[in-house]
Amino acid sequence: MTDHSLHIGQYDVTLLLDGLFEAPADVLIHADGDVARQHAIASWGKPTLQVDVNCFLLRGPAGIFLFDAGTGSSWGPKYGHARAALRDAGVSPDEVQGVLLTHIHGDHALGLFDGDTAYFPHAEVFVSERDIAFFTDPAEREALPEARRGGFKIAEQLQRVYGARVRRIGAGEVLPGIEVHPLPGHTPGHIGYLLRGKDRSLLLWGDTLHLGDLQPVDPKIGLTYDLDPGQAVRTRLAALEDAAREGWIVAGGHITGFGRVTRDTDGYRILPA
Ligand SMILES: [Zn+2]
Description:
Blueprint: E1 5-8, E2 11-24, E3 28-30, H1 34-44, E4 48-60, E5 63-67, H2 82-88, E6 96-100, H3 106-109, E7 113-114, E8 117-118, E9 124-128, H4 129-134, H5 138-142, H6 150-162, E10 166-169, E11 172-175, E12 178-182, E13 191-196, E14 201-204, E15 221-223, H7 229-246, E16 249-251, E17 259-263, E18 268-272
Parallel strand pairs: 5-6, 6-9, 9-10, 14-16
Antiparallel strand pairs: 1-2, 2-4, 3-15, 4-5, 7-8, 11-12, 12-13, 13-14, 16-17, 17-18
The structure holds zinc ion (ZN).
């Protein structure tokens, strides 16, 4: 096991790093308004944010699955390295039986596609029914600014390319020992996956938070990519509290590696697991 792999219950989970996402620090937002937002930007201290883009390989008795799929070839040569990481792990795309999405955003879903064909020719795609309903609703699309509409094109492409292999999921167990963990806010149907093992459990929490140093200390800090910022704050707080209380290991789309959440005098901290 490398530090990029964990054994949980009957599964081996391996982190696949797709690339590094950079954005100007002014994508930070704060639930308490502009003064708090400026304070958050100042405490970040750098002009840009840089975060990992992750997806995960799951190997177990039921076969080979992925959690999210990275960007594929859609975001250019700085991204898409999850495909090589998957090959290095000895897995070819046609062996992947399913891809479990956390939400319908490009850095999580575009790796499903090779142009207009399925990069994973035999995979089912598990997608939150709430997210697919939202991202196929023309009225919801109209209500959003252009820059927030990427998910709508992806939802259309997903249904066209994967067709009957799109599996809409709500709550409950999706694979043995793996449950959907609703985490709405970043997108309406944003979900995590809780892998329950005997001694330890792992919550793959997608984009519940992006900045592992900053947001646990002040969960009211968000990013402009959160479609419902208020709900995202409530979800972030609940997820941090649940993970701290239950001792879950956490990992996700953008924090580095696998972590453990601890309570601190001000907020929470994520320490390497
Ligand atoms: Zn993301």
